[in-house]
Amino acid sequence: MTFLRTHPRRPGSSVLPAALCLTAAVTGLALPAPRALAAQESGTLLPEASAPESLVRYDPDHLSAAFHRQRRQAITDVLPSDAVAIVFSSPQRNRSNDVDFPYRQSSDLYYLTGAFEPGTVLILAPGGIRVDGVTVTELLLVPSRDPHRETWTGRLLGPPRAESELGIEKAVEVTRFEEIVGPLLETRSLYHLPMPSGLVEGSALSRQIEFLRGKARIMDTAGGMEQRLVDFLLSVESEEDLANAQGRMQGSLGAGWIRGATSREILAAFLAASSLEEWSAWRDENVVGAFADGRTLSARLAGLRGVKTE
Predict the structure, then answer these.
(1) How far is CA 93 from CA 98, 203, 216, 298, in A?
(2) 132 — alpha (psi -120 to 50), left (phi > 0) or beta?
(3) How confident is the model at residue 59 (pLDDT cuts 50, 70, 90)?
(4) Pick from 111, 164, 103, 113: which is nearest to 140 by CA?
(5) Whole-angstrom Cα distance, residue 149 to residue 138?
(6) Is the entire prediction scored with pTM above 0.85?
(7) pLDDT band at 222 (very low <50, low <70, confident <90, very high)
(8) Could you tell me the sign of the dihedral formed by the alpha carbons of 75, 114, 131, 190, in that order?
(9) What is the chain's Cα-based Rg?
(10) At what angle do helices 239-249 and 276-286 cross, to 10 degrees?
């Protein structure tokens, strides 16, 4: 006698035999919903319209949509009217072959939206974005839904539920990234966080960032300590600080931890400057106003996280 191992479901619902799951995986057949199985077993018909929609947010213990909305508003309040802020999700990390590491969303994107899906992009524009006939100040680009794939990966939000569950003004599919961002950057100033690292060449996220770099000059730093070093160099405003910093940083260019091309260029110019006047002139010509703003969002988010919320 052969026993089929079954996958446990919620109390009162049917079970799906492992053999059935395996067959569906091989043949591409979609599995029937648990309620439909239960109806078949009892000999009753379940009207399709009466079946509840499947869950999207499986964990109910999360921050409210109002909390994330307040965080977005706090960011929008410090941006000029001609700004457009773009926040990317974290990339997916592959472990081996077709197995990925458990996904962890970008802390910044989650803090601002509550979105947990890879491939999500947030756009904030105080001056408004015209999309599908409406003008909004916040737009969330979410992954396209694929019902067949969702049989195994779980249901994605999709634009309608992103709006209703996350409280976003407007949500559209992320496949429209270039269509929306391209025209915006022709007339708006870009504000961004450090670009995600460890991108898979040819991935959707990699293509999005490559497209962004083609539209705006983005400072190439590796984030973290490297970004803080660049911020410090750009803030030096006295001959004494210049001399002290140059003395401490001699030999830093050979250090392996400075990986960003822009970081190395700025450090080289800083070390080569013979006076504060020479450094200030190089900085104003080559950095200030030449790059998209990669500092304002980070500073504002750091300030918000230090404020106690109810």
Answers:
(1) 11, 12, 27, 24
(2) left
(3) low
(4) 113
(5) 29
(6) no
(7) low
(8) positive
(9) 25
(10) 80
